[in-house]
């Protein structure tokens, strides 16, 4: 239980810090809304076209807003020297990983909570149903986990934040495809059982990615 | 390209050349003309073989990354980066020849056919790996980051494969619907020989590429000694 | 359906890319070997000079 408390401490620190400055979530949210609007204009999303495209637009927006948030959150950590403090403390690297990843997950979920109703209205799709929320949660969890690991790497490269989308997106293909297909199926009136194989894939992805990231995260922080 | 006395390297180069020649002979003479697609189908053998090498090379990078993190040292990192470079070339071949095969058969250069799509994804992963390596100056850090990325990336590839496969099976294209070609025993033999030939070629190239890395390291070492001399 | 053109281009691509890879490796190796022998001779000269003093 000590593990959980340590993780919780890190999550709480990040969330509280963000609550005061609000810089990460607001940047993500503004970007997400703008992206959604740009998509709507560019693709002329109305009526049936909008309904079919909605899950995809939603997830592309979440993915890109996510890379913004992930980079910023880790960059800020580096700037404030916080990461050195964490490293000095006698804790398992996996604690830091879970703490950061869950923190990032929280930020993404906050953005999604505001984005979902917006998309539901703009594209006229019943996004606010339990099934969709579950899929969003599963997908975001996997994305945040692998994103946290890769952000840790990206922030330490010459190109910095720009590197993260390059590294992250090819590895996020399973999440993107599965989440979009699952949401799509649910919007067409299917039940969770109908999109069961997609959910299974998301769960498998989440488990695998979390385990692997947890194992190698220490090597990313090592200095 | 083999240094004097590198018999293993020389042997690999010669035998892979011979194997490729054998494969080519089989492809154009031994294998039959395919019933539905005609001669254009002969792209298949090298196309599948290069896809196999592309995947296998990535697997080697994955293993080498683990080896490096487990304390293996520079040697393992050299293998990882060398394998990635070769793998990138072969995956590029796979994607390009796939498109060239698709055009006469289905009329378009690109279909979102599962195998072609997964090759494209792998290509992007390889490119990302390469960009990561170029983006980190300090050698130890570069090796470490590359190893981590190589491991995580490889693990997601099978998941991407399933996702793409299931995605395409929902909407089977009318275009690629009737894609199955009839495989005869002769075609199977030819394919096996092609696979073996490409694997041999991969090993030969890997060996040379790793030696190249060692040369680069030797140069860096010499340079540092040179710079440390009192003026 | 003959369509030899695409077949030919495809094989040309195999050879082309393999050639590019091998040629670039060969060129890099030449350059490295030359640089190494250059530095080795320089080092020898300096060490001789220092011994002579």
In words, what does this structure look like?
The complex is a heterotrimer of chains A (223), B (231) and C (53). In chain A, α3 packs parallel to α6 and α6 runs parallel beside α9. By secondary structure, chain A is mainly alpha-helical. The mean pLDDT of chain A is 90. Chain B has one domain. Chain B is built from six helices and no strands. The longest helix of chain B has 44 residues. By secondary structure, chain C is mostly helical. Chains in contact: A-B, B-C. Chains B and C meet through α2, α3 and α6 of B and α1 of C.
Question: What's the gist of this structure?
Answer:
The complex is a heterotrimer of chains A (223), B (231) and C (53). Chain B is an all-alpha fold.
Strand content of chain C: under 5%
User: How does the major sheet of chain B shape up?
Assistant: none
Rg estimate of chain C, integer Å: 23 Å
Shape of chain C: rod-shaped
List the keywords.
heterotrimer; A: 223 residues; B: 231 residues; mainly alpha
Question: What is the fold's blueprint, element by element?
Answer:
The complex is a heterotrimer of chains A (223), B (231) and C (53).
Chain A lengths: L1 H20 L1 H21 L3 H33 L2 H7 L4 H31 L6 H25 L8 H9 L1 H15 L8 H26 L2
Helix pairs in contact in A: 1-5, 2-3, 2-5, 3-5, 3-6, 3-7, 3-8, 5-6, 5-9, 6-7, 6-8, 6-9, 8-9
Chain B lengths: L6 H24 L12 H30 L1 H33 L7 H21 L4 H32 L14 H44 L3
Helix pairs in contact in B: 1-6, 2-3, 2-5, 2-6, 3-4, 3-5, 3-6, 4-5
Chain C lengths: L3 H49 L1
């Amino acid at each position: 239980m000590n593990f959980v408390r340590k993780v919780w401490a890190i999550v709480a620190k990040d969330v509280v810090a963000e609550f005061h400055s609000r810089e990460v979530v607001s940047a993500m949210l503004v970007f997400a809304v703008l992206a959604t609007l740009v998509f709507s204009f560019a693709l002329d999303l109305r009526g049936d076209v909008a309904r079919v495209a909605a899950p995809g637009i939603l997830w592309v927006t979440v993915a890109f807003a996510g890379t913004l948030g992930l980079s910023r959150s880790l960059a800020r950590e580096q700037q404030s020297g916080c990461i050195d403090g964490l490293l000095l403390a006698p804790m398992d690297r996996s604690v830091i990983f879970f703490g950061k990843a869950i923190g990032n997950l929280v930020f993404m979920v906050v953005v999604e909570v505001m984005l979902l109703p917006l998309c539901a209205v703009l594209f006229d799709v019943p996004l606010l149903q339990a099934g969709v929320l579950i899929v969003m949660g599963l997908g975001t969890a996997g994305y945040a986990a692998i994103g946290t690991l890769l952000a840790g790497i990206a922030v330490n490269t010459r190109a910095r934040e720009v590197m993260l989308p390059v590294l992250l997106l090819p590895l996020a293909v399973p999440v993107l495809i599965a989440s979009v297909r699952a949401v799509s199926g649910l919007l067409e009136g299917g039940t969770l059982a109908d999109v069961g194989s997609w959910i299974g894939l998301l769960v498998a992805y989440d488990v695998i990615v979390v385990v692997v990231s947890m194992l190698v995260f220490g090597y990313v922080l090592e200095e | 390209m083999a240094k004097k006395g590198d018999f293993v390297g020389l042997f690999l180069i010669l035998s892979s050349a011979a194997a490729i020649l054998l494969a080519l002979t089989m492809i154009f003479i031994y294998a039959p003309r395919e019933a539905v697609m005609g001669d254009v189908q002969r792209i298949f053998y090298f196309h599948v073989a290069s896809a196999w090498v592309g995947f296998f090379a990535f697997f080697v990078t994955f293993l080498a990354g683990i080896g490096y993190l487990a304390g293996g040292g520079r040697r393992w990192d050299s293998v990882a980066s060398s394998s990635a470079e070769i793998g990138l070339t072969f995956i590029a071949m796979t994607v390009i020849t796939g498109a060239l095969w698709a055009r006469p058969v289905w009329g378009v250069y690109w279909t979102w056919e599962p195998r072609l799509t997964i090759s494209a994804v792998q290509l992007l992963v390889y490119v990302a790996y390469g960009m990561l390596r170029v983006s980190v100056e300090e050698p130890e850090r570069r090796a470490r980051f590359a190893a981590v990325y190589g491991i995580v990336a490889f693990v997601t590839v099978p998941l991407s494969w399933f996702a793409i496969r299931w995605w395409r099976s929902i909407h089977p294209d009318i275009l690629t619907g009737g894609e199955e070609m009839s495989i005869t025993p002769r075609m199977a033999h030819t394919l096996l020989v092609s696979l073996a030939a490409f694997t041999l070629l991969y090993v030969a190239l890997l060996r040379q590429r790793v030696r190249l890395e060692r040369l680069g390291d030797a140069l860096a070492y010499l340079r540092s000694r040179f710079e440390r001399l009192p003026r | 359906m003959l369509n030899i053109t695409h077949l030919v281009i495809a094989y040309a691509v195999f050879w082309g890319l393999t050639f590019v890879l091998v040629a670039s490796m060969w060129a890099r190796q030449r350059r490295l070997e030359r640089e190494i022998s250059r530095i080795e001779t320089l080092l020898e000269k300096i060490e001789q000079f220092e011994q002579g003093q």
